């Protein structure tokens, strides 16, 4: 997993819960990196799982809810760092339906070793989108949070239903209906 995911996560933890919480969750985890991350480095996903689990244990906030909050934070990083990417789109459905064929292509140019989830568009209309999320990492709530922020970015709203295809969350169906 790319280091930017870790550095931004720890920034979020510091901003929301304080520097002491960052120290606490790093200390409670068994991290090969010892909690030292660079944005361009590559680190084990198990480290993110440990940090999330320890943050959840210390805050009594579910991992899914932490991932939603983190996605909102991460979207602002995308807005600030890559405004041209978002400016390519005029509509949230258009943007979300192009994750696999455009956005992930651009991400791989910056982070060639990035292990990204797969998004398969099952159906698309002007007001609806059905996508299948597949990943060895069950971070579908991170994806849900990014989708929510996408609609907010375009001053729009949507009802987004998440249906687990595989119970472990490695395959999920997103049913999106724009309001």
TrEMBL record:
- Any idea which GO molecular function terms this record carries? heme binding
Q: Which domain of life is it from?
A: Bacteria
Domain Heme NO-binding: start-end pairs: 2-160
Record PANTHER family = GUANYLATE CYCLASE SOLUBLE SUBUNIT BETA-2, SOLUBLE GUANYLATE CYCLASE GCY-32-RELATED
Protein name (record): Heme NO-binding domain-containing protein
User: Which species?
Assistant: Polaribacter aquimarinus
Starting at the broadest rank, the lineage of the source organism is: Bacteria, Pseudomonadati, Bacteroidota, Flavobacteriia, Flavobacteriales
């Amino acid at each position: 997993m790319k280091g930017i995911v870790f550095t931004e996560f720890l920034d979020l933890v510091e901003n929301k819960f304080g520097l002491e919480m960052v120290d606490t969750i790093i200390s409670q985890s068994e991290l090969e990196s010892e909690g030292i991350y660079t944005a361009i480095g590559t680190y084990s996903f198990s480290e993110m799982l440990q940090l999330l689990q320890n943050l959840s244990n210390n805050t009594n906030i579910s991992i899914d809810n932490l991932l939603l909050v983190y996605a909102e934070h991460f979207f602002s990083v995308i807005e600030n760092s890559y405004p041209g990417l978002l400016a390519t789109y005029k509509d949230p459905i258009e943007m979300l339906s192009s994750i696999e064929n455009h956005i992930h292509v651009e991400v791989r140019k910056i982070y060639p070793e990035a292990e990204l989830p797969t998004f398969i568009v099952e159906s698309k209309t002007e007001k609806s989108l059905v996508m299948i999320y597949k990943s060895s990492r069950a971070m579908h709530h991170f994806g849900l949070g990014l989708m929510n922020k996408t609609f907010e970015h375009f001053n729009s709203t949507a009802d987004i239903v998440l249906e687990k295809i595989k119970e472990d969350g490695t395959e999920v169906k997103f049913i999106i209906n724009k309001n």
